[in-house]
């Protein structure tokens, strides 16, 4: 017998005392939006949905038509759920307020509508990433306090990859599960129950073209991965859609690394829309995530579009990363 995403989430919600079904209803808005997005992605090239939209987003990047479509789909679908007080999108400068002062508003949702924009026009995997917070206990009348919460406060997070199939990966803090969209049924079906990141993988994933601009400990770490010292002859894989690179890392193990570099000293990926959701999933699956200095989920954000370095992967690769960073910190403090 098949298990749909909705059935599975409803079952899981029974573990949360006082669950009313509102969260399951909210999730159905997210899944509906991703089905609408995937329908356009699957027809890209046949309809007028490829190419640049002509607009520039808050990040200063040219928006693709699919970026704009995905963002509108999510906003339209989420706006229909009265339990959502606030949404924040990577594509919008400010959070969108949906009645956060209403007593019915319980949740904030942040999302990257379409990650991997440079891959849209060449039929390479892209995806939607989301993260959900509960209404903050204090200062709930300040909209920013709903979304500027450390990643540890996420109550659920996930993504959908539009790849060789459409796969939703999701966690509400009770393990990570994967659901594949059955195009004939129009439903996400549970296909990957309780995903665990392998303790050690065989791939590392990084844009090595920037290696001359990486801080020294990252170079040392890469050298260690290549040396075979960890008992594996690592190979490299880099798609250039973080969500796709992370999906492979989650299923096959290894490590995804986007270090700070000379052009982006704070890193390039977004803490709220990219870093936090994958860090939450990684930890739930037995891995971990860092910004090079701290556990990523403990970082207190100060800006909704804040960037971050991101290193995320399995136990062995992350332990070696921490070792390289510690070694560097110790030699720095000995010199000072
Ligand atoms: P994109 O800008 O194409 O949407 O943060 C977005 C992201 O893609 C990530 O998905 C990807 O890993 C990264 O940027 C690629 O950046 P570089 O080209 O600098 O490697």
Question: Brief overview, please?
Answer:
The chain is of the alpha+beta class. The chain has 8 helices and 17 strands.
Task: Explain what you see.
The protein is of the alpha+beta class. Helix content is 32%, strand content 24%. The chain is built from eight helices and 17 strands. The strands form four sheets. It has an eight-stranded mixed beta sheet, with helices on both faces. A hairpin with a 3-residue loop joins strand 7 and strand 8. Helix 5 packs across helix 8. The longest helix has 22 residues. 44% of the residues are buried. The mean pLDDT is 95. Bound molecules: 2,6-di-O-phosphono-beta-D-fructofuranose.
Order of strands across the biggest sheet?
Answer: 4-3-5-6-7-8-9-10
Q: How many distinct beta strands?
A: 17
Number of separate helices: 8
- The dominant shape is globular
Order of helices and strands: HHEEHEEEEHEEEEEHEHEEHEEEH
Q: Report the portion of residues in β strands.
A: 15-25%
The poorly predicted ranges are none
Helix content: 25-40%
Query: Whole-number radius of gyration?
Result: 20 Å
């Amino acid at each position: 017998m098949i298990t749909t995403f909705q059935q599975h989430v409803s079952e899981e919600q029974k573990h949360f005392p006082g669950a009313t079904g509102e969260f399951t209803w909210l999730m159905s808005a997210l899944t509906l939006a991703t089905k609408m997005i995937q329908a356009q992605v699957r027809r890209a090239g046949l309809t007028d949905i490829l190419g640049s939209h002509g607009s520039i987003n808050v990040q200063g990047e040219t928006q693709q038509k699919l970026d704009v479509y995905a963002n509108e789909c999510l906003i339209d679908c989420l706006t229909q759920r009265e339990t959502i007080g606030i949404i924040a999108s990577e594509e919008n400068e400010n959070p969108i307020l949906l009645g956060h002062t209403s007593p019915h508003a319980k949740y904030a949702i942040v999302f990257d509508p379409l990650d991997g924009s440079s891959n849209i026009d060449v039929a390479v995997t892209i995806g939607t990433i989301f993260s959900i917070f509960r209404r903050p206990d204090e200062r709930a009348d300040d909209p920013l306090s709903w979304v500027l919460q450390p990643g540890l406060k996420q109550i659920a997070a996930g993504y959908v990859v539009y790849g060789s199939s459409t796969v939703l990966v999701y966690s509400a803090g009770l393990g990570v599960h994967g659901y594949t969209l059955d195009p004939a049924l129009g439903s996400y079906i549970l296909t990957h129950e309780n995903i665990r990141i392998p303790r050690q993988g065989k791939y590392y994933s990084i844009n090595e073209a920037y290696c001359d601009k990486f801080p020294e400990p990252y170079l040392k770490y890469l050298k260690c991965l290549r040396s075979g010292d960890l008992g594996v002859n690592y190979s490299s894989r880099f798609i250039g859609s973080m969500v796709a690179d992370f999906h492979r890392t989650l299923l096959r193990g290894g490590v995804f690394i986007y270090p700070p570099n000379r052009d982006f000293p704070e890193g390039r990926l977004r803490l709220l829309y990219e870093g936090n959701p994958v860090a939450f999933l990684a930890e739930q699956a037995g891995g971990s995530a860092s910004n090079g200095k701290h556990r990523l989920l403990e970082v207190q954000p100060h800006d909704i579009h804040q960037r971050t370095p991101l290193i995320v992967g399995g136990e062995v690769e992350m332990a070696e990363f921490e070792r390289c960073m510690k070694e560097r910190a110790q030699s720095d403090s000995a010199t000072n």
